[in-house]
Request: fold
Amino acid sequence: MTGSSGKARIWFGALLRSAVALASTLIILAIFGGVTDVVLHITRHTSSNSQSFNNIDEVDVVLDGDISVSVLGQTDGRTGVMVNAVDTSTVFDDPVRSTNVIGKTLYLTERCPDSRCIAQLTLLLNTHDRVNVIAGNALRLDQAVIDFSGLAGGATVQAAPGKLVVTGTVVTGAVLGAVECDTIEDCAGISTTGAASQAR
Reply:
């Protein structure tokens, strides 16, 4: 009996030590996993890229999230569009961008999945090209700026919410947010809700 009880004590002692070691390992892994998850969700990276598209005379842009776009009309006679993008996000919420060309129209969409993602697009195109922008679901108005400059072909915009900045471009559409124009005439065709349209 004494030998059996001694063996049982040894066996239970080994079992207890194994259980303690397993529990300690699981706790350490849980802490390490939690810290790693927090770091990965907080640490941001910035990336940039450029694309060019030839023989374009109209651009349709759809933005979802905290994404700003600057559209700059050029008078150098170009027939294409240059798209420059700068994205800031974590490894889990990179923006999703797609581009398609049908006929002479460039279709550009970009989506930022959550608040840790922001993006800035810059489009350089012929001043006579037509531009249409639809934007929504922004969390921060200062990260959802639509800037039209020098577009003789005019532009349309639908933004909810968004901030519209206009220089030397006749714009029509609707904006839930703020509108700033170099002249009131350029923004006469814009319906606004929120901050009133104002001339700079």
Notes: The chain has one helix and 13 strands. Helices lie at 2-42.
